[in-house]
Amino acid sequence: MAEAQPNADDRRFMAAAIRLSRRHLGLTGTNPSVATLIVADGVIVGRGVTAIGGRPHAEPQALAEAGERARGTTAYVTLEPCAHHGRTPPCAEALVAAGVTRVVGAASDPDARVAGRGYAILRAAGIEVLEGVLAEEAGDQLRGYLLRSVKRRPEVTLKLAVSADGMIGLTDEGRVAITGETVRRQVHLMRAESDAILIGIKTALADDPELTCRLTGLEARSPVRIVLDRNGRLPASAKLAVTARMVPTMVAALPNAIQPSQRSELESRGVTFLATEAHEGRVALPELLEDLSARGIGTLMVEGGADAAGQFLAEDLVDRLVLFSSTKEIGSAGVRAPITPATVPPSFRLLRESRFGADIGQEWVRAY
Ligand code: AOF
Ligand code: ZN
C-alpha cells in the first residue's frame, strides 16, 4: 500500500515543530533538540521540546500539556520517537498510551536503540504513521546529532567574514571590522546554538577574544571554547584563560610541545588540555574531532583565522560553510581568505542567502 501523502496542515505543523525544536539547540548535550506538537482538529493542544540537558524528551512534555485531550489526535515529531527504556519509558509507548491516533514524523533516528523501532511500535499499535515529512528541514537542525551518530565526529561549521577583495583580517596586529553590527549579532546567535567554538592560536594571540555569546538573555548559552594551539602558547592572562571557570576553555596541544610550567599555570585557571596526536607537526584534526565527539560535542563552529580555517578545509572536514561578505576593501595589509563565495567547491550546496545590514550572509552545506 502506498504511504499517504502529507497534507498542507501536516507541512504547516511540522514546520512549526521544527521552529520549536530550535529553542534548545546547543543545550541538550548529546541528545538532539527535538520538538513535538499534539494537534486536535487543527488546534495545538500540547507542545514539547527536549529539555535542557537532554531529558525529559519532547513527547512526554507535549502529552502532559495535552492531558486527556491527547486522545484521537495527531502528533508531529521532528525525530522518530525513541523505542528504548532510558530513565523514562520509550516515547513511542507514551504516544500509544495517550491514545494518539496519527503520528507525522520528520527525521528517522539513527540511534541503534531506535533505528525504525520507534515507528514500528506505533504501527503495531494501529497508529497511522507518516514518515519523512519535511525531513530535510528537520535534518538540517539535527545535523550535529545525525553526523555524530554516523561519523563519530561533530558537525563542523566554518564561519568567516570576507572583505570585497577576498581578505579576512590584517597581517599585523590590530583587528579590523570587516562586517557590521547585524552580522556580529548573527554570529553571537550562531555561537549560542553551537556546542563548541574553535579558533587558531594566532587569532587568540592577535585578538584576545572572549568568544562568548553576548546577546541579552542568551549569555548563559556560550559554547565551550577551543584553541588550536600545538605548542601551548596561550598566555594565562588571555581572556579565554581568565574566564575558563565561567565558560569552559580547552587547548588542543601536542603533549610534548608544551612547557610543563605553562601547562600547570593554565590548568590552575581551569583550562582543560586536549592532548592530541600530531600530523605533520600539527594537531591531527580527525583525532581531535573524535575526542570532542566523545566529550559530547555535536556541533563545532570554526571561527578562524586563516590557518585553522585552511586546515579544516584542506582536510575536507567542513560540513557547513557560512560566509559573510562585506563591500569593504582591506587591501594588501590583509590576510587572504582560504575560501570566498567565488571559490566554494561544487560539493557544497547553497542553502540560504540573506542580507545582514550592508553585508550578505550565505550558507552552504555539504552532503554527508
Ligand atoms: C525522543 N524524544 O525529545 C529526544 C530523543 O539517553 P536518553 O535515554 O535520553 O536517550 C537519548 C536518545 O534519545 C538519543 O540518542 C536519541 O536517540 C533520542 N532522542 N528521542 O523520543 C526526544 N531528544
Ligand atoms: Zn524519547
Describe it for me?
This protein is α/β, with parallel strands linked by helices and 368 residues long. It has a 9-stranded mixed β-sheet with strand order 11-10-9-8-14-6-15-18-17. β8, α7 and β9 form a beta-alpha-beta unit. α3 runs parallel beside α4. The longest helix has 17 residues. The chain is globular. Bound molecules: ligand AOF and zinc ion.
Tags for this entry?
368 residues, alpha/beta, 25% strand, globular, binds ligand AOF, binds zinc ion, EC 3.5.4.26, 5-amino-6-(5-phosphoribosylamino)uracil reductase activity, zinc, Riboflavin biosynthesis protein RibD, Eubact_RibD
List the helices and strands and how they pair.
Elements: H1 8-21, E1 35-40, E2 43-49, H2 58-66, E3 74-79, H3 91-97, E4 102-107, H4 117-124, E5 128-130, H5 135-151, E6 155-162, E7 167-170, H6 181-192, E8 196-200, H7 201-207, E9 224-228, H8 239-242, E10 249-253, H9 260-268, E11 272-275, E12 278-279, E13 282-283, H10 285-294, E14 299-302, H11 306-314, E15 320-325, E16 334-336, E17 348-356, E18 359-366
Helix pairs in contact: 2-3, 3-4
Bound molecules: ligand AOF and zinc ion.
